[in-house]
Design a protein that fits this description.
Distance between the termini of chain C: 46 Å
Number of domains of chain C: 2
Strand order of the largest sheet of chain C: 1-2
CATH architecture of the largest domain in chain C: Orthogonal Bundle
Bound molecules: adenosine-5'-triphosphate, magnesium ion
Structural class of chain A: alpha/beta
Number of helices of chain A: 13
Shape of chain A: globular
Strand order of the largest sheet of chain A: 7-6-8-9-10-13-14
Oligomer: heteropentamer
Chains: A alpha/beta (426), B mainly alpha (336), C mainly alpha (398), D alpha/beta (262), E alpha/beta (233)
Number of strands of chain C: 2
């Protein structure tokens, strides 16, 4: 199944060092002769896109490029990143991808934050046969397209949902209320959630779709207060400042997190703005894509240090993934020995490298096709099967997310109990 | 006849159109630039039809982008659910956009300036929220996929399709603006009551101007988004509409050509100005380029109300008339 | 049960159409003021059908009085609510009174906050006769001024102050920016130096808002920010009502500022001057008032109020450079609803929008979509108002 | 044969009864003066005839057709044209274009060029041919008044209502307007002229209508009306002072100044 | 008291409505300006009061040039203007309207009180209706409000443009009486533009007749015997 296998990750942590060293050995530190190998980065740098995401991704990619070039570049040539702003608009994304491929002659494209934009970009990649490695778009549809050119190292929505749903089941949640934004992310997440709730026998009491930019959530929170029975958990799939407003109001009203109701927050809860915006945010449960801080490897630490030097905060998963995506491409080029697309795609399918987020490989590829019987979901095509999805919980106000309790999966639990009831400290 | 065609304005027009028709030969190697220019044509259509609606007819609408979206969504949904061909979809989208324009026109008969602006803002917002919320039907923010115009369409072909639309709609609008229609809508803009007393059917022309511009943007929207392959509610944000308005104003909102050229260059330069190289450093302009755009907009308004291109257009198109007047005037003064 | 439904669903619209169509003619025939007859004929037909239309037809009372419009309006509202209750008998809004009370209380609270956002806009309109399309951006600016002030105080001097301190400072800064903008870009319009003043005003304010927003984005970045809250408190339980104290404080700031504004306008000389200029510029000049200065002052006070409302709200809501967008759209809705140029109108408009959004989102039959349509409810009311009565509730004829 | 019947027309604004049962009839190419104190309802009557206002009561028949309630453009096309007391040129259009608007509105199939010649002729007659390509906003007040006349000439209506045509007009131009009225009247058009300028009114009109408080208080030959005690009381002033010809100037003329102040 | 020298004024750059007007208004006298419609009488008053900026020429008040002084500051110099187009603050009460006349001394409560009382004595109707919205008053009463508001400041020079237009006959007699009273008892200098020529001549001391932007006649009222002179056209 697509669940992250804890075992694998623990093992890869051990082998990580060697792999990185291998790369070092393989790369010839000769000064490249003028020419560069270009990789295209895509992400939103202006509204209506999520600028925060785009900036972080761009930074991490640049970091990876300079790291690689410091080690001598790829195929003896320096790597060059050309990052294009997609503005969160599909048509701009498609145009940007086209520009990167045809104008700038990039050998591969990586990045993207918004699924809708990614879906437009992958068509361009497909058209030109250029590999696209998506590092942060979650929609199942990205890999479900089944294109040879499309790879993904971020979890699909369904993978993300599974962690939360399984934890809910584990702590005995019976009734769940979901508040999701009416965007590709929120809706996709909710669809996946509902599937798992059904599978695990959790009752979805109510789903509230909200418009991004909503400031006042009292109308729906009042609705939740009036629910009978009181929900056992509230699942939030809302991003950005909208999620902060929601989470603060929910906590301020005492709806969740409370003794009766688990409150989940969006993963942006690891951003430093979280405590500024949600001062009442203690006891929120939030998911984290990637390794728990306690399991950071050297690469992760390296990226985290550089990132916090720049942004004064810890790298979100999409920054780490963006960093890794450049390395994965560099690795594939190196192994292919050429930048020619088919060879590169072939090399990408054989990826096996441990980086900031763990050991990357693609399980279902042209060499190991998806079974026809549908036993494996279609989104597993060219999908990294093991992205770690952890659940963490704050148990003190203003807590550093690295100190938060890891409560799921069980192997990573740091503080024993599975749900920390408000007012208690583990 | 020959002499008329040798006037600078005709020469300028021919050169301009010739350049546009010929440029794929140069742009061919860069599909991206081609796409940018093709997109810029779309904005040029939006801006010039907005100039017709707001600048020439005085109907200050913010619903333009929404109408383009209506065209695209109609085409897309029909294609998805009923399997219509893109052409059928585009026709349906254009018609629906025209119908919505008709309804807006009828509803807004009584609303002037700021009120109309507010009403159309509300309309676009409601539509956008509806598209987002009824995602089961509209695909929400994921965006609605649209087929390519035809199987295997190339960038050059898309370029010519959009250029054709631009030239066609410009020709139509020019013809309208210079015919009785233009005369009437301008007289309405100046004074509705007086125009009515002069026998102008103000109700009909006010509604007509909405319908016609809606048809144009509906057609352009449906076609353009078929080329893009996807349309999302985000394209209908007020912000996107404001860009169109700003482009039209900078180019000259009372001149169809000015607005189109303004939009074209704004679009291309916004695209090109993402980063600027200064002494080898690249500066990410990001948000600054929009800030600068806003500044340009207010200074244009304040100091060049007719748009930055006005002096050129004035030179090409109006100088002759002016000379004529001055001559006549001096003659009249000499007589007295 | 079915009879009232049938009545409302089938007969109501028929009588409404009849009333709206015929009653004005009756009034006109008798040489009476027919202006309100269309609305009241429509509402009266909708609510009581022939039972109201008949007497109106026969006696043709003076419909100009407030109770005709108000009464039929309330009656119509009641009937719609009743119809809703019958068709949605299991809706929370029907079954649970304390739920409704809670929604209403929260709606009214946020309504005061909304009103505060909007009053500045209506003030500018009343004196200058223009709608500022940069209002939301001044609101955004106010929030940031307060944020950076508090940040500066705490980082430089280690002083932690209550965010209420930011309110007057933000007001001051946005007022200065407003003054400067007015002097540079709006005064030429009042001096008759620009053509098509109405459209110029829309575009120039709009362009300035655009500029402010992107400048803020370029400087501050897209990250969300917020000052500390007014109080470290959870919720407040008042009987069955659950309120958020911080929000009550913001609403109180709103009430105080609106009261101050009303005082300024009605009880001080400056206010009289402002109102005088809004009514007749030349006559004001003849009495010794400087209309240009009053214009600038009105714009400055308007932007100051926008800034203050921003500063009052940044402890409550999270701030990003584009917060102004929703705020301004909502403000337009409010001032048009209340009547352009009327300060009490803005207050009522704010309360109505607060209520409509809360009850709309709270009672919408499909709960999952109610919240997503929250803004849309207000916008729909607004669009209807524009079509039926562009002067709004308290607006005067232009 | 031109025939206009105004039957018992009422018009009220809120509480104000601006027209209170006005009835009269026009047959043929009469030249009619319409006078009365400020606020008597003269402009309101014009607006009712023209369709800008819908009367609250009564009917207006024109050439055998009921026209009250029709929109202004329908009435204009049926042959009733008017000028505005406060000039309303299309300020940001050229003078020529101003002239073409009514012509094009009246002839749905014609092309603009067909009317250029006529427009220039009219402009020449109005001594404005050198201004044809100027924007109307750059005309002087008097020239704007003339432009309004010019537009009417292009519309070529059967009944022409002139609301204060002499207000703010240069005396030399006034001569031109006299001439214009005379020429056009001879072509078989009827005129209703509203003016506070008694001299012009008495010179021009063949018949006088006097409005006061929305009621028609006199209707007849100028000479007779001048002596009508009701008219004297309401408008012209007392007999004794009339001798010195002061009547002619008595009209405390607020409207045209309002216009120039506006 | 008030002196105008060779004044050129227009609304547009190259078109002067007034082309070299000169006149003088003596202290505590009524000077009336007559002329046909549109000759520029109102324009003259507007130029004196500063709503229009003269292209050339001088306006002197007690020897001091008024050119360039903003309109709203002129009231402080003791000159006041009642425009032809009535201007009241429609949505304010009568009392507020009157009070606004006291804008320049708005802090002197005592004086405001006194001036208000004077006005209420002068126009008892206004006292009755002092709480009504001014916009609801009849045209005549609105004119009273306007005159009353002007008199709040004790101006030394008043420019009056057709003060009785739209007033019923009786009321208009009263206004003329009031003007006489202002001149005789309070020593005000009045410039009166009027079309009620007989009335104006009855109360005037000195007459100017304008013709198309130029002086046509001036002289003491006694010299002005031929009424037709007012209408040379
Ligand atoms: N649109 C309107 N709304 C309200 N009242 C109006 C309107 N138009 C005219 N009136 C009122 O109707 C009455 C008649 O006005 P009208 O303009 O017809 O007078 P008039 O005879 O043309 O006067 P004048 O000679 O001053 O032009 C006046 O009391 C006026 O205030
Ligand atoms: N705002 C303006 N813009 C342009 N021209 C104007 C303006 N106001 C007045 N005029 C013109 O200036 C000339 C003189 O106008 P003015 O108002 O001074 O006349 P008047 O002598 O007061 O006439 P009346 O007795 O009718 O009030 C007129 O020809 C008028 O058309
Ligand atoms: Mg009139
Ligand atoms: Mg005058």
């Amino acid at each position: 199944g697509p669940t992250p296998e804890p075992q694998t990750i623990v093992q890869t942590v051990e082998v990580e060092k060697t792999v990185v060293e291998t790369v070092e050995v393989e790369v010839q530190p000769t000064r490249p002769a003028g020419e560069t190998i270009r990789i295209g980065g895509v992400g939103p740098l202006s509204a209506p896109g999520s600028v925060v995401g785009g900036i972080a991704m761009q930074f991490a990619m640049n970091l990876a490029v300079s790291d690689i070039n410091a080690e001598g570049g790829v195929l003896g040539k320096p790597l060059e990143l050309i990052f294009a702003d997609t503005e969160g608009l599909p048509e701009r994304g498609a145009a940007a991808a086209e520009r990167l491929i045809t104008e700038n002659g990039v050998v591969a494209i990586t990045g993207e934050y918004h699924s809708a934009v990614g879906l437009a970009e992958l068509e361009v990649c497909h058209e030109y046969g250029v590999p696209c490695l998506f590092s942060e778009t979650w929609s199942d549809a990205i890999t479900e397209a089944g294109y040879m050119e499309v790879f993904r190292i971020a979890p699909a929505s369904s993978m993300n949902s599974r962690a939360t749903a399984e934890w809910f089941a584990a702590v005995g949640v019976e009734n769940v209320v979901s508040i999701v934004e009416n965007t590709d992310y929120g809706i996709g997440q909710d669809e996946a959630d509902q599937g798992f709730y059904e599978e695990l026998g959790i009752n979805s009491q109510e789903v509230f779709f909200v418009e991004l930019g909503t400031e006042d959530f009292l109308p729906i929170l009042t609705r939740i207060q009036a629910l009978d029975p009181v929900p056992d958990a509230i699942r939030v799939a809302v991003t950005g400042e909208t999620s902060f407003n929601l989470e603060q109001q929910m906590a301020e009203l005492g709806i969740a997190p409370s003794e009766d109701t688990i409150g989940t927050a969006n993963q942006v809860a690891i951003q430093p703005e979280f405590w500024e915006s949600v001062p009442n945010g203690a006891y929120y449960v939030f998911s984290l894509v990637g390794l728990p801080p306690s399991l950071y490897n050297d690469t992760t630490t390296h990226v985290a240090e550089a990132y916090s030097a720049q942004f004064d905060s810890d790298p979100p998963s999409y920054a780490l993934e963006a960093y890794d995506s450049i390395w994965i491409l560099a690795d594939a080029i190196e192994r292919a020995g050429t930048t020619e697309s088919t060879a590169l795609i072939d090399a990408l399918e054989d990826t096996d490298i441990t980086l900031a987020q763990g050991r990357y490989y693609f399980e279902y590829t042209s060499k190991n096709p998806l079974p026809d019987n549908g036993s494996v979901p279609a989104y597993m095509w060219h999908q990294w099967p093991d992205p770690a999805v952890l659940l963490l919980q704050y148990f003190e106000p203003n807590q550093d997310w690295k100190d938060a309790a890891v409560i799921w999966p069980e192997v990573y639990q740091t503080h024993g109990t599975t749900y920390i009831v408000p007012g208690t400290t583990p | 006849m020959i002499k008329r065609l040798l006037q600078p304005r005709w020469i300028a027009m021919v050169v301009l159109v010739g350049l546009l028709v010929a440029s794929p030969a140069y742009l061919k190697d860069s599909p991206y630039q081609m796409a940018v220019v093709t997109g810029a044509f779309f904005y040029a259509i939006l801006a010039s039809s907005w100039a017709l609606l707001a600048g020439i007819a005085g109907q200050f609408s913010f619903a333009h982008m929404a109408l383009a979206g209506i065209g695209a969504y109609t085409a897309g949904i029909l294609g998805r659910d009923l399997g219509t061909t893109p052409l059928q979809g585009i026709i349906a989208g254009t018609v629906l956009a025209g119908l919505v324009g008709l309804v807006i026109g009828i509803l807004c008969l009584r609303l002037r300036a700021a009120y109309l602006a507010l009403f159309t803002i509300a309309f676009s917002e409601i539509l956008r929220i509806w598209l987002l919320t009824e995602f089961q039907f509209t695909e929400g923010s994921n965006g609605l996929m649209l087929d390519k115009l035809w199987e295997g369409i190339t960038g050059v072909q898309e370029y010519y399709v959009m250029l054709g639309l631009l030239l066609g709609s410009m020709a139509l609008m020019y013809w309208l603006a210079s015919s009785r229609f233009g005369l009437f809508v301008r007289s309405m803009r100046e004074d509705e009551e007086a125009a009515s007393a002069m026998g102008v059917n103000v109700v009909r022309y006010k509604v007509l101007i909405f319908v016609i511009t809606s048809l144009i943007v509906g057609l352009a929207g449906a076609t353009f988004y078929h080329q893009v392959g996807i349309v999302t509610p985000n394209t209908m944000e007020i912000l996107q509409m404001s860009l169109v308005i700003a482009m039209a104003v900078i180019g000259g909102m009372e001149s169809l050509l000015g607005a189109a050229i303004g939009a074209f260059f704004s679009r291309v330069s916004l695209e090109m100005l993402r980063e600027v190289g200064v002494f080898g450093f690249t500066i990410e302009l990001g948000a600054w380029r929009y800030a600068a755009f806003g500044l340009l907009l207010i200074f244009t308004l304040r100091f060049a109300q007719n748009g930055l291109l006005y002096p050129i257009i004035d030179r090409l198109f109006m100088r002759g008339a002016r000379k004529d007047t001055v001559a006549k005037r001096t003659l009249a003064e000499e007589e007295t | 049960m079915t009879i009232p439904i049938l009545w409302l669903v089938l007969a109501g619209p028929f009588w409404a159409a009849l009333g709206a169509w015929r009653l004005p003619r009756v009034y006109r025939k008798k040489g009476l003021d027919d202006a309100p007859a269309r609305l009241i004929g429509g509402l009266g037909g909708l609510t009581l059908g022939p039972f109201l239309l008949g007497p109106l037809w026969y006696f043709t009372p003076d419909l100009g009085r407030w109770y005709w419009g108000g009464g039929t309006g309330i009656l119509a509202a009641f009937e719609l609510v009743g119809l809703f209750a019958i068709m949605q008998s299991d809706n929370l809004c029907v079954t649970n009174a304390s739920y409704v009370a809670n929604q209403a209380a929260n709606g009214l609270t946020i309504g005061f906050i909304y009103a505060l956002m909007a009053v500045g806009l209506t003030l500018i309109y009343s004196v200058q006769g223009i709608i500022s399309f940069a209002h939301g951006q001044f609101y955004m600016l106010g929030g940031y001024v307060s944020y950076y002030l508090l940040l500066f105080l705490s980082e430089r001097f280690g002083i932690e102050v209550n965010p209420i301190v930011g309110v007057p400072v933000a007001g001051l800064v946005t007022m200065v920016v407003g003054f400067a903008f007015e002097r540079l870009f709006l005064r030429p319009m009042h001096l008759g130096r620009v053509e098509r003043a109405g459209e110029y005003a829309i575009l120039i304010t709009f362009g300035f808002g655009f500029f402010l927003q992107y400048t803020a984005l370029a400087i501050v970045g897209p990250f969300s920010q917020k000052t500390g809250t007014y109080l470290q408190a959870g919720s407040l339980q008042l009987g069955t009502l659950v309120m958020i104290p911080n929000r009550l404080i913001a609403a109180a700031v709103g009430i105080v500022l609106i009261a101050l504004l009303l005082y300024l306008l009605n009880r001080t000389w400056t206010g009289k001057g402002l109102r005088a200029v809004s009514m007749d510029k030349q006559a004001a000049a003849v009495t010794g008032i400087n209309p240009l200065r009053m214009n600038t002052l009105a714009f400055g006070i308007g932007t100051m109020l926008a800034g203050m409302s921003g500063a009052a709200l940044i402890p409550v809501f999270t701030w990003v450079p584009w917060v102004g967008m929703t705020a301004s759209t909502r403000s337009y809705v409010i001032i048009v609803l209340g009547g352009l140029g009327s300060v009490p109108g803005a207050l009522f408009g704010g309360l109505i929008i607060g209520l409509v959004e809360a009850l709309g989102a709270g009672c919408y039959p499909d709960p999952s979509k109610g919240a997503a349509y929250k803004t849309a409810f207000g916008l729909i009311i607004f669009a209807l108002m524009l079509l039926v009565r562009p002067t709004g509730l308290f607006g005067r004829e232009p | 044969m031109i025939e206009l019947q105004v039957r018992d027309v009422y018009k009220s604004f809120g509480g104000i009864q601006a027209l209170n049962g006005v009835s009269f009839e026009i047959q043929g190419n009469q030249l009619i003066g319409l006078i009365g104190p400020n606020g008597a309802g003269k402009t309101t009557l014009t607006n009712v005839l023209d369709g800008v206002y819908r009367p609250t009561g009564g009917q207006v028949w024109f050439n055998g057709e009921r026209i009250d309630g029709l929109p202004p453009y329908e009435i204009a096309r049926r042959g009733l044209g008017r000028t505005f007391q406060v000039t309303r040129a299309f300020r940001r259009m050229t003078v020529l274009e101003n002239m073409l608007v009514p012509a094009m509105a009246l002839h749905p199939t014609a092309r603009q060029r067909d009317f250029h010649k006529k427009a220039w002729e009219v402009l020449e007659f109005l001594t404005m041919d050198h201004l044809g390509r100027e924007f109307a906003r750059s005309l002087s007040g008097g020239q704007q008044k003339l432009l309004e006349l010019g537009r009417l000439l292009m519309l070529d209506p059967d009944i022409i209502i002139l609301d204060e045509p002499f207000a703010g007009v240069h005396p030399k131009l006034m001569e031109t307007i006299y001439e214009y009225i005379d020429v056009v009247n001879k072509q078989g058009k009827a005129f209703i002229i509203i003016s506070h300028d008694m001299e012009s009114i008495f010179t021009l009109s063949q018949r006088l209508l006097v409005l006061n408080f929305g009621e028609l208080i006199a209707d007849g030959k100028p000479g007779a009306v001048k002596r009508d005690p009701a008219v004297i009381e309401a408008y012209l002033g007392e007999e004794e002072e009339e001798e010195e010809g002061i009547v002619l100037i008595e009209a405390g003329d607020m409207e045209d100044a309002e216009e120039s102040d506006a | 008291m008030l002196e105008i020298k060779d004044l050129y004024v227009g609304y547009y750059k190259d078109l002067n409505i007034l082309q070299g007007i000169s006149m003088e208004a003596q202290e505590a006298k009524i000077t009336t300006v007559l002329g046909a419609n549109g000759v520029g009488k109102s324009t003259l008053l507007k130029a004196i009061y500063g709503f229009l900026r003269p292209n050339s020429g001088e306006v002197l008040l007690a020897g001091r040039s008024l050119i360039g002084i903003p309109t709203h500051e002129r009231i402080d110099m003791g000159i006041s203007y009642i425009p032809q187009q009535p201007g009241i603050f429609r949505w304010m009460s009568v009392e507020e309207n009157l009070e606004l006349g006291a804008w320049t001394f708005r802090d002197d409560k005592e004086r405001i009180r006194r001036k208000l009382d004077e006005n209420y004595q002068r126009f008892p109707v206004l006292k009755e209706r002092r709480k009504s919205q001014a916009g609801e008053l009849s045209g005549g009463m609105q004119r009273m409000v306007e005159v009353g508001r002007t008199l709040m400041t004790d101006p030394k020079v008043i420019l009056v443009d057709e003060p009785t237009a739209g007033l019923a006959k009786l009321l208009s007699e009263e206004v003329y009486q009031m003007l006489i009273q202002l001149r005789d008892e309070e020593g005000m200098t009045i410039i009166l533009v009027d079309q009620e020529i007989r009335q104006a001549l009855k109360i005037a001391d000195y007459v100017y007749v304008l013709e198309l932007g130029r002086n046509r006649f001036d002289g003491p009222v006694e010299e002005f015997t031929d009424l037709k002179k007012a209408f040379w056209v």
